[in-house]
Design goal:
The chain is of the alpha+beta class and 374 residues long. It has two domains: 237 residues, P-loop containing nucleotide triphosphate hydrolases (Rossmann fold), CATH 3.40.50; 118 residues, OB fold (Dihydrolipoamide Acetyltransferase, E2P) (Beta Barrel), CATH 2.40.50.140. 26% of the residues lie in helices and 33% in strands. The strands form four sheets. It has a six-stranded mixed sheet, with helices on both faces. A five-stranded antiparallel sheet has the order 13-12-11-14-19. It has a four-stranded antiparallel sheet with strand order 2-1-4-5, covered by helices on one side. The protein is globular and about 75 Å long. The model has no long low-confidence stretch (mean pLDDT 94). Adenosine-5'-triphosphate binds next to β2 and α1. Magnesium ion binds next to α1.
Length: 374
């Protein structure tokens, strides 16, 4: 096992054709993945996740910066020398070997006994629902099955680091759910360092100890699920983490006596904040901010203590999964609110909505950073 450290890492792809453009896929990335930690790299398509993973794997050169496994600089070491196990979205299985052989091959190379190998393969095949296809060749398998063989092959080994790039993208929702549990269990059993790339926030947040959120080649924030959810550093993370996304609107600083609050533009709603944010706004002395509140944090009833309220009209009601999503309006402003599906409400009704003031997020309009980190 190893701790992985990325120091000021860049990946710039040089153009293949004359007149082609350079692509900066990773910019000045600093990240430490602790020994035994499960880290997810999360971000939209093209943000540099795979490039980062391939540089850690030794499959792609590092344009600038350094990568360390524990105290060893690995920039110039091959994948084999780094002792990493990988499973990628494209499975790269050995086509002339059966599924059994594909999984067992890396173990044979490492001179494990036949009996030991058999036990490991059987165990993984069962976990990843491959027991029925152990004697098949990869060409006969579905995309999802091929991906799971690739995953099993990676997990059969005992490398310094596991690198997994969207290893479940070809499986259906139910299977993904089961596989996630198995991967989590395996990590719990072997306590290995794992770096898992995905653009699915649910997958990242449910599997990983910490999540590194990337956008446009840059790291935005690293944190646990709670840190990202409760204290997003910037607008991108606030908007990207959480389902449905946070309500984000312009808010005008308004003062009445000693009380300070944010009036949501286009409406008569004024939101109160906790003491920390209120103090910060007093010191920053700006007029307008971006104000955020999660659909989960607005409650469509009056709650007695510790909550503030505002009035709004229910515009329409949708059912999403096991919750119902209300779109509410006040003036020209609309907000989303999550409610229990048995909450009895009709479009056109005017209700009181409650929210805890400490759940109101505030971001600088220019820098898009949370005022708490400014
Ligand atoms: N070999 C390459 N040559 C040139 N540009 C590349 C190469 N590989 C990736 N890129 C570019 O680098 C950027 C980052 O790509 P990367 O594959 O790392 O993103 P990603 O976050 O893994 O995206 P996805 O979620 O779609 O897999 C993209 O703009 C991509 O087009
Ligand atoms: Mg990718």
């Amino acid at each position: 096992m190893a701790k992985v450290t990325l120091k000021n890492v860049y990946k710039i792809y040089t153009p293949r054709t004359k007149g082609g453009k350079e692509v900066e896929a990773v910019r000045d990335l600093n990240l430490v993945i602790e020994d035994g930690e499960f880290m997810a790299l999360l971000g939209p398509s093209g943000c540099g996740k795979t490039s980062t993973l391939r540089m850690i794997a030794g499959l792609e050169s590092i344009t600038k910066g350094d990568i360390y496994f524990d105290d060893v600089r690995v920039n110039d070491l091959s994948s084999v020398e780094r002792n990493v196990a990988m499973a990628f979205e494209t499975y790269s299985l050995y086509p002339h070997m059966t599924v059994y052989k594909n999984i067992s091959f890396p173990l044979e190379v490492r001179h494990k006994s036949k009996k030991e190998i058999h036990k490991i393969v059987e165990n993984l095949a069962k976990k990843f629902q491959l027991d029925d296809v152990l004697n098949e060749y990869p060409a006969r398998l579905s995309g999802g099955q091929q991906q799971r063989v690739s995953l099993a092959r990676a997990l059969a080994r005992e490398p310094s680091v596991f690198l997994l790039d969207e290893p479940l993208s070809h499986s259906d929702a139910q299977l993904r759910f089961q596989m996630r549990t198995e991967i989590k269990r395996l990590h719990y059993e072997i306590k290995s360092t794992m770096i898992y790339v995905t653009h699915d926030q649910l997958e990242a947040l449910s599997l990983a100890d910490r999540v590194a959120v990337m956008n446009f080649a840059e790291l935005q924030q690293v944190g646990t699920r709670d840190e990202l959810y409760n204290n997003p550093y910037n607008l991108f993370v606030a908007d990207f983490i959480g389902e449905p996304p946070m309500n984000l609107n312009k808010g005008l600083v308004t003062q009445e006596d000693d009380d300070l609050f944010l009036k949501l533009l286009g409406s008569s709603i004024t939101l109160h904040m906790n003491a920390e944010r209120t103090e910060k706004i007093k010191r920053l002395d700006k007029k307008e901010y971006i104000v955020g509140i999660r659909p989960q944090d607005i409650i469509p009833v009056e709650v007695p203590s510790g909550f503030m309220t505002f009035d709004a009209e229910v515009d329409f009601v949708e059912f999403i999964g096991e919750r119902s999503l209300l779109t509410i309006k006040n003036g020209d402003l609309t907000l989303k609110v999550l409610a229990s599906p048995d909450f009895d409400v009709k479009a056109g009704e005017v209700l009181k909505f409650s929210y805890p003031p400490e759940r109101v997020h505030v971001f600088d309009i220019e820098t898009e950073k949370s005022i708490l980190v400014l």
